[in-house]
Design a protein that fits this description.
- This protein is α/β, with parallel strands linked by helices and 215 residues long.
- The protein has one domain (4-209): Spore Coat Polysaccharide Biosynthesis Protein SpsA, Chain A.
- It is 31% helix and 19% strand.
- The chain contains eight helices and eight strands.
- The longest helix has 11 residues, at 42-52.
- The N and C termini lie far apart (33 Å).
């Protein structure tokens, strides 16, 4: 159990990495900009939930087209990395963020297409993630996202130069801690227009109509 003072120190040494560098080809528009609510896009909803959980160090790894949308809504708490090589995969995006912030003790890795992450889930992971090399929420026996990795795992990812290696393969080498969660829709992965309609009951806006949806 982390006491209040050490919890504050913990949160100050924790970084949330939000991954949104993909081309969203199956969705045919950038998933980061999909409407989560009337006031929030996917990416803004995630930023807000992490801030509610007092995780204020947030790094966005974005597709260059999405990065342009942040010019007018820049927040001083956010760090932005534009990934010009999204074809290199998710681990490449993660490595870019880890190399930029190698000194953190823990890192949340948050996919933008897993948008139903709540403050409660994040807070549960914060309380338990010191017990393993990496921590995952588990629901109905299935490991979900986001995951939290320690600096030990982060340094291994930074040093790994094999572009074919996956995050799953790396994590298999480390001690996993499970946090059992009961949260509606946490397992949802919004990859296609059909997925979006299933969970949001509407058709995604065309690319030119998408906005960040900021507070």
């Amino acid at each position: 159990m982390i006491n209040s003072d050490s919890q504050t120190d913990f949160k100050n040494s924790t970084l949330c990495i939000i991954l949104a560098a993909g081309r969203s080809q199956r969705m045919q528009k950038h998933k980061a900009l999909l409407e989560f609510s009337e006031k929030e896009s996917f990416i803004v909803h995630l930023i807000n939930e992490y801030k509610k959980a007092e995780i204020h160090n947030i790094c966005l790894v974005l597709n260059p087209e999405v990065a342009l949308g942040f010019n007018n809504v820049w927040d001083n708490d956010l760090s932005l990395i534009s990934n010009n090589s999204p074809e290199k995969g998710r681990l490449h995006s993660i490595r870019m963020a880890l190399k930029t912030f190698p000194e953190m003790e823990f890192y949340f890795i948050q996919n933008v297409d897993n948008p139903f992450v709540s403050q409660a889930v994040i807070s549960s992971l914060v309380k338990g993630c010191t017990k393993g090399d990496y921590t995952t929420p588990v629901q109905n026996g299935v490991g979900l996202h986001p995951i939290v990795i320690s600096n030990k795992v982060a340094q291994h990812i930074i040093s790994c130069t094999d572009e074919e290696t996956t995050l799953r393969e790396i994590l298999q080498q480390f001690n996993r801690n499970k946090i059992y969660i009961n949260e509606i829709n946490l397992a949802a992965n919004i990859n296609t227009q059909e997925d979006y309609q299933t969970y949001f009951n509407k058709i995604p806006l065309r690319s030119q109509e998408c906005t960040l949806g900021w507070w």
